[in-house]
Amino acid sequence: MVNLKEVTMCYPGADKPALNELDLRIEDGEFVFLVGPSGSGKTTIIKLLTGEIRATSGELDVNGFDLQRIKRNKLPGLRRTLGVIFQDFRLIDNKTVYDNVAFAMRIVGASGKEIKQRVPYVLDLVGLSGCEKRYPPELSGGEQQRVAIARALVNNPSMIIADEPTGNLDPVKSLELMFLLQKINELGTTVLVVTHEKELVDAFSKRVVAINGGSLVSDGMDGYYSYEIE
Fold first, then answer.
1. Which of 31, 113, 168, 204 minimizes the number of CB atoms within 10 Å of its CB?
2. Cβ 46 vs Cβ 194: under 8 Å
3. Do 139 and 147 touch, CB atoms closer than 8 A?
4. What digits encode the pLDDT tens for the residues 170-205?
């Protein structure tokens, strides 16, 4: 569960807050689109949720962690509850698909037995069975993004944060990716998708949170329509 209450974020030297007394609550199991123009505060929200930065003021709780008071040695515990998917994939080119996904388990101390059981299951879930020995440069953009999703899922997080996950994909692959995220959500994982792609949001009947200038503009099933995103 995510709960932001009157969260303000002021960066040093900025002439206005990146976020201004923002309230946002995401319940376990929800699928939410976060939309807004460039500079609206979307990236700041992601950085706050992952503990990369700390808010100037307000209350921020993520999956049972109080991020305004969390100690640095507790951040790995927070991040194990989150799976983050990036627009640019961030795969390791000289590692196979299997090893890219397994690497995420190794860095949290998973055993070899756990890795051998979990990685094939997750690769099958995202439609990449049979690709274990291939390398990222040998894959299409859509396949690389599926590897990134598998990596985000492999430690069984309670929440997936997808930051512009379709930015490098064509419309058909973008839809396929969104259907995959929907499937993951239906299996019980909370999904937050940050995007500027109106057509993609229009294709799914999901909750839409729109922000602009660091403030909430609309929130609901019709949130995207009440505020046009450039």
1. 113
2. yes
3. yes
4. 888 889 999 999 999 999 999 999 998 888 899 999
